[in-house]
Here is the input.
Amino acid sequence: MKVFNDLSELVAAQGSRLGPTEWLEITQERVNVFADATDDHQWIHVDGEKAAAGPFGGTIAHGLLTLALVPHFSHQLYAVKNISLAINYGYDKVRFIDPVRVGAKIRARGVLTTVDQLEGAAQATITVSIEMEGSDKPAAVVAQIIRYIA
Here is the structure.
């Protein structure tokens, strides 16, 4: 994990590579809990028997579950110290490139793409790539925007 001691270190680190994180296995239980939380019970996510005969050979995680794990991975990629608050400002260019099959292990890498100095704050865009163990293609690529308040 890369630690930035303050906003000036974060700003100076623009272009830095971050990660990788630890692997996280995507379980059917996690997918089912996400389906319940979002009321998205599409068979490709929750019906193992039907999904086994489907296009992915089994159940897959929701793309939005993969996106929802970006903050989990971000806490392993880096930390910014001596701030009062960090706000998830949003996401740009979210792409779900390769489905995450239940049982797959995923992790993240990042690039501190841009960091804009603001008055009493900084806004960073981190391009996060979610990798799957054994795959050459990323599961997802996301531009995460975080605003840090001094």
